């Protein structure tokens, strides 16, 4: 494999877009084409800057700092295209960064990864290539997918061509993608332990070496690399479910989960990060990757392992339903015809992504209780919210959704005449709201349910609110001290 001069990325989504934009930024000597079958998405990546501010405000993915990176590189060594075949044909190295959602039907339904986008990309690479290439799995895939890709390539490619397959899972977190890509904790590259495999891994390492210290690039075998991505997400999600399980105990006892998390996190073996109790995790990856791991374990005849990881998801579902139930029971056991303001719809702050967002589940619970739901999010487009709330199979009655749900352009408007405010996403702007004004416009008693523990309950109580913070028990006043 020669040094990499031209890169093609198949898939211009949340991973392909930011990842390969950052490669283009750091590697001015490499030409990067990001290709996608979704023409609207490519058009958005190629959209014009705002005529007044000059900023790229219409990119399909919102990430802090991303617009600046794209602006700097686009048209220089970074191109977005729907001409996938040409982009593949010209490349020395192809990232496969397509979606790998949970299968919705057939064998492994609800658990296994749907690999047909990966396979379609692989077949396309085989059919259009007239030169040898390095193929890199960027998508999160089950262990041993690289072997299937190689078989497909070898069976379909022109004679004499050689393809090296690498696994290079992506560890970026949405909301901090650019920062994570610029300064990753590690870059993982898996390859076959053959001479060619190791040379291909070195070529990819040379790309990252433009900006990542070489000691941060860890090379392993293919299967370890593939499994490490599933393992890392399972461990992260497990930490959230673990602290959320503690939150339930805290709420029942009067302990405070923030204090418990802090006390535990001081132990070096545990560490302080990723111990924040919440209404439950969301995002396109955690649940999907754990389900995938569960399926893998079951197919390897390891049912105890499968059950162990399944419990992480069960606990997450419980966190969401427990929170919704808390809202209903606190509002005197009925929210029928009451207005509930939901602040935040994205699955976490600093992203417009709503996939598997806890807010979707909360809105569904509130709707089932016949409440009026008023939603505000600073970044999620209105059309996306409607799509999430009326997705076929989730809610069948679009008309009724529109009767029960309103989408607002400000917090103040969402909260007007509401009985309760539910904080579903930890957007920074919710920390500095004018709570006095919000209180004045609400029905009384006015409730705040903080699903992210981001506002100070004492301050809100001074304003007059009744407050529930996830993981905080009621302030129990012991009669001895009263
Ligand atoms: P996405 O859905 O945002 O993007 C995937 C893109 O691939 C879509 O735009 C789709 O049109 C395109 N695509 C599908 N088939 C294609 C084909 N045959 N030819 C050309 N384009 C095609 O998905 P996202 O979030 O970027 O995820 C991609 C992969 O990365 C998944 O396997 C995911 O598990 C993994 N991942 C995601 C992370 C995240 O934070 N979203 C983080 C780390 C890994």
Automatic annotation (TrEMBL):
| InterPro entries, per the entry | 6-PGluconate_DH-like_C_sf (IPR008927), NAD(P)-bd_dom_sf (IPR036291), UDP-Glc/GDP-Man (IPR017476), UDP-Glc/GDP-Man_DH_C (IPR014027), UDP-Glc/GDP-Man_DH_C_sf (IPR036220), UDP-Glc/GDP-Man_DH_dimer (IPR014026), UDP-Glc/GDP-Man_DH_N (IPR001732), UDPglc_DH_euk (IPR028356)
Instruction: List cellular component terms (GO).
Output: nucleus
Domain (UDP-glucose/GDP-mannose dehydrogenase C-terminal): give its ranges.
341-457
Its domain of life reads Eukaryota
Q: Which GO terms describe its molecular function?
A: NAD binding; UDP-glucose 6-dehydrogenase activity
> Which residues does the record give as NAD(+) binding sites?
11-16, 36, 41, 98-102, 139-140, 174, 285-288, 355
Q: Catalytic residues?
A: 285 (nucleophile)
The pathway to which it is assigned is: Nucleotide-sugar biosynthesis; UDP-alpha-D-glucuronate biosynthesis; UDP-alpha-D-glucuronate from UDP-alpha-D-glucose: step 1/1
The alphabetized UniProt keywords are:
NAD, Oxidoreductase
Q: Which reaction does it catalyse?
A: UDP-alpha-D-glucose + 2 NAD(+) + H2O = UDP-alpha-D-glucuronate + 2 NADH + 3 H(+)
State the top-level EC class: oxidoreductase
Do you know which Pfam families this protein is assigned to? UDPG_MGDP_dh, UDPG_MGDP_dh_C, UDPG_MGDP_dh_N
* Acetylation among keywords: no
EC number of the protein: 1.1.1.22
Q: Where does substrate bind?
A: 170-174, 229-233, 269, 276-282, 347-348, 452
- Example GO BP: UDP-glucuronate biosynthetic process
* SMART domains linked: UDPG_MGDP_dh_C
Q: Does the keyword Oxidoreductase apply?
A: yes
Q: What's the family?
A: Belongs to the UDP-glucose/GDP-mannose dehydrogenase family.
| Official protein name in the record | UDP-glucose 6-dehydrogenase
User: Which organism is the protein's source?
Assistant: Acaromyces ingoldii
């Amino acid at each position: 494999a020669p040094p990499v001069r031209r890169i093609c990325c198949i898939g211009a989504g949340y991973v392909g877009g930011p990842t390969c934009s950052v490669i283009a930024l750091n590697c001015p000597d490499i030409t990067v084409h990001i290709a996608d079958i979704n023409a609207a998405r490519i058009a958005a990546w190629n959209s014009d800057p705002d005529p007044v501010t000059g900023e790229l405000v219409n990119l399909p993915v919102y990430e802090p700092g991303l617009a600046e990176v794209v602006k700097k590189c686009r048209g220089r060594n970074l191109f977005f295209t729907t001409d996938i075949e040409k982009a593949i044909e010209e490349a020395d190295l192809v990232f496969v960064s397509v979606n790998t959602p949970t299968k919705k039907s057939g064998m492994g339904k609800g658990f296994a990864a749907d690999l047909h986008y990966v396979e379609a990309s692989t077949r396309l690479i085989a059919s259009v290539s007239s030169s040898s290439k390095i193929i890199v799995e960027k998508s999160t895939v089950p262990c041993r997918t690289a072997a299937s890709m190689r078989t497909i390539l070898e069976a379909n490619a022109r004679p004499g061509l050689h393809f090296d397959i690498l696994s290079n899972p992506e560890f970026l977190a949405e909301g901090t993608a650019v920062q994570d890509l610029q300064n990753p904790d590690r870059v993982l590259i898996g390859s076959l332990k053959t001479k060619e495999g190791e040379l291909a891994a070195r070529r990819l390492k040379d790309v990252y070496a433009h900006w990542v210290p070489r000691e941060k690039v860890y090379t392993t075998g293919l299967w370890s690399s593939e499994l490490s991505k599933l393992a890392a997400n399972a461990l992260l999600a497990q930490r959230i479910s673990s602290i959320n399980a503690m939150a339930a105990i805290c709420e029942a006892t009067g302990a405070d989960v923030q204090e418990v998390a802090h006390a535990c996190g001081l132990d070096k073996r545990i560490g302080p990060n990723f111990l924040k109790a919440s209404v439950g995790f969301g995002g396109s990856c955690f649940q999907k990757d754990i389900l995938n791991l569960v399926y893998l374990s079951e197919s390897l005849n390891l049912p105890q392992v499968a059950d162990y990881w399944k419990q992480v998801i069960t606990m997450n579902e419980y966190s969401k339903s427990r929170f919704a139930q808390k809202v209903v029971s606190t509002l005197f056991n009925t929210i029928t015809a009451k207005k509930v303001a939901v602040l935040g719809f994205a699955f976490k702050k600093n992203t417009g992504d709503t996939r598997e967002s806890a807010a979707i589940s909360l809105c569904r619970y509130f709707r089932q209780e016949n409440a009026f739901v008023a939603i505000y999010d600073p970044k999620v487009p209105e059309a996306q919210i409607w799509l999430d709330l009326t997705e076929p199979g989730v809610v069948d009655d679009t008309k009724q959704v529109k009767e029960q749900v309103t989408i607002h352009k400000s917090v103040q408007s969402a909260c007007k005449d509401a009985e309760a405010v539910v904080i579903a996403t930890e957007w920074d702007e919710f920390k500095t709201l004018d709570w006095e004004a919000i209180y004045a416009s609400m029905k009384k008693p006015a409730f705040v349910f903080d699903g992210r523990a981001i506002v100070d309950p004492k301050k809100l109580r001074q304003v007059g609110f009744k407050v529930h913070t996830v993981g905080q028990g009621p302030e129990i006043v012991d009669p001895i001290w009263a």
